[in-house]
Each structure stands twice: as structure tokens, then as C-alpha cells.
Amino acid sequence: MAEYFRDLVPGNYYWGCGTLNTSGLHVKSKWSIPGEESVSTFMPHPEHMAGPTDVVNGGIISALVDCHSVLTAVAREYHGEGRPVGDGEKIWCVTGTLTVKYLKPTPIDQPIDLVARVVETKGKRTNIECTVSSGGVTTAEGLVVAFRVDPEWTGG
User: Which of 98, 106, 19, 1 is nearest to 55 (CA)?
Assistant: First the structure.
């Protein structure tokens, strides 16, 4: 059985984490504390650079926060229903809001660690806090509000 959420979500074309999107970032998220906290490690590529070639572009950082957090919200929904990710009727979540606070430049030549924490779930809404770090230094913090949508949102 796969341990990464992205490998368990059927029909996953998301640019950041989709297994079916060959051009995407291929973010791989998994639980560190089931239902509460997930982790991911991402190795940036040279084409992910900002103006300075030694740091990661802010848009890439934002996409990492967004995709890791929304996929965590999807996994949390499955967890809340007591079923494994991808089991039974599809669960999809979308970004309602995304806020990223950039604290320091993120080096492009080392792995980026992401930690997403479920802060609150209420109805169809899940609030996720995400920390971005590199080399043990926090470089960005994000807040994502994800909303569960009907399975038909992606064609069923």
C-alpha cells in the first residue's frame, strides 16, 4: 500500500501533487500524526529559481504550501470518515484562501521540508497551517483554508 496521499487519490491531475500530471511538482505528502499533521520533502530544480539563481521562486513556495495543505485537507476528510485515502467515494478539496508569509530566502540547492497542521475543521472547511523550512531554518509560513467540494467537481 502506498504511503503518500497523492498515490492514493484517484484521478489526481493537480499540478503540485498529481501523479497523472507529468509536468507537475510531484509533491509527496504523508501523515506524521494521522489526522493532524503531514510532512513532505521537496527537492527544488534549477528552473524553480527566483531572480537570484540560488533561491527558490516565491510562486513555487506558494504552490508547495497550497498543494501540500490542500492534499492534507483531503486526507483529513478521509480520516474523519474513518476510511483510507482514496477508499470509496472520492473526496476533493479546493483552495478557498492561501496566505504565505515569506521570512527568509529558501535555498535552491537543498531539500525543502513542509509540515502541515490541521488547525480546525468545521463543516466543509479545513484550516491548515504550513511551515516551510530548509536546512532547519523556517523560510516561510502559510495558512490555507480548504473547502470540500462535491465529487462531481472533477467529473465524479
Answer: 106
Q: Which residues contact 47 (CB under 8 A, 6 or more apart)?
A: none
- C-alpha 144/C-alpha 73 separation (Å) is 9
Whether the CB-CB separation of 98 and 68 falls below 8 Å is answered with: no
CA distances from 13 to 52, 63, 67 (A): 30, 14, 12
How do residues 62-100 score in pLDDT, each as one tens digit? 999 999 999 999 999 999 999 999 899 989 999 999 999
Residue 28 C-alpha cell reads as 509527496
The beta strands (E) that lie in 29-136 are given as 29-33, 37-42, 92-102, 112-122, 125-134
SS3 29: strand
- 3-class state of residue 41 by DSSP: strand
Query: Where do the domains of the chain lie, and which CATH numbers do they carry?
Result: 5-154 (3.10.129.10)
pTM assigned to the model? 0.92
Task: Say how many CA atoms lie within 13 Å of 65 toward its Cβ.
Answer: 26
